[in-house]
Write the structure tokens for this entry.
Amino acid sequence: DAGVTQSPTHLIKTRGQQVTLRCSPISGHKSVSWYQQVLGQGPQFIFQYYEKEERGRGNFPDRFSARQFPNYSSELNVNALLLGDSALYLCASSLGWPNSNQPQHFGDGTRLSIL
Amino acid sequence: AQTVTQSQPEMSVQEAETVTLSCTYDTSESDYYLFWYKQPPSRQMILVIRQEAYKQQNATENRFSVNFQKAAKSFSLKISDSQLGDAAMYFCACLMNRDDKIIFGKGTRLHILP
């Protein structure tokens, strides 16, 4: 069975641009979470979606938004990119919500570089 | 606010030896879960071991075990018979039962010396 898949693998953007990152959860998983991992740091929680509804939001500006589709895949959008948005963006999926009873499975991430 | 602290940025261990990675956390909640994740250069975050805070017994997964000290808010990971494939970044993490976000520490880079 396929794991969590994220696209693209790498992305280079310039300041002020907008970017969309995509995530497909493991088949049967209905919950998707997004994390930002800056180089040398642990991942930081951005969003969690379950059944197409936002269930949790981390301490990120409104430039960050996300959504979940009927097939449970998800997109993370970041507007007005800043140099500080350069990071590895990780997507994780789990069977249900809340996550405490369900192990989260992570994808390989999208490496976003802002020039 | 919940925090997770890993005080060892890097550690090295000889192959086949035992190593312990330290982690402390701070929370006012009584119901939470603790994890150790491994992140090799391939970037994928892999769950190594999980501990429910309400369980007194320390979790064990093959060569990996934890020492969970709830009163001290300490959650260390012991790797026995270290193997070259264990080389990676290790993240300690905490999830509150009422919440859905995992709080990660800054990580410990583990080197395995042949």
Summary: Chain B touches chain A through 26 residues (CB under 8 Å).
